[in-house]
Amino acid sequence: MNHSIARPVQPVILFLCVLGAAFLAVGLLAGTAGAQTGYPGGATITAPAVITPCQSGVVTGSNFPPNSAGSVTVGSSTVPFTTGPDGRFTATVSVPCSASPGQTLVVTASAGGTTATTSIQTGAATATTNLPLTGSSPVTAVLARVGIALAAVGAALWAIAANRRRAAVATPAG
Prior knowledge:
Layout: H1 6-33, E1 44-46, E2 50-51, E3 56-62, E4 69-74, E5 77-82, E6 89-94, E7 104-111, E8 114-122, H2 138-170
Parallel strand pairs: 2-8
Antiparallel strand pairs: 1-3, 3-6, 4-5, 4-7, 7-8
Helix pairs in contact: 1-2
């Protein structure tokens, strides 16, 4: 019984395993960047969850139009900013002293026709922010599934070839 087919198949099996692992890696890594989109509609801002009245905090934004003048408004307080070439900004805002502890204040940032909002709580209350959804997209799931399928096919072919080699070694040529 001649099992010479096992030798030429090995590079194909190895290729499928490597290709499957590559698709899996790309699928998993794509999830970390797939959710953020550039403007319009993808602008995001972050602010501290809680700021005490008469105190200040840093608001950051991303995915705004590059090199645009804008402003951040917290309650009745407005602070100007200019986005960088990457569409990001940082601004220090103050919570008005007239704000009551536990009050929810809307934080709005606008630049170049793009607006994003979130909220903060004053005092010691816990805030809920409108954070962007990150970490996954339909493409990520497809790439991960293709990678897993290719890795499984490669592993199965590898196992079949190994069994054929063992059978060829155990069976004397005759």
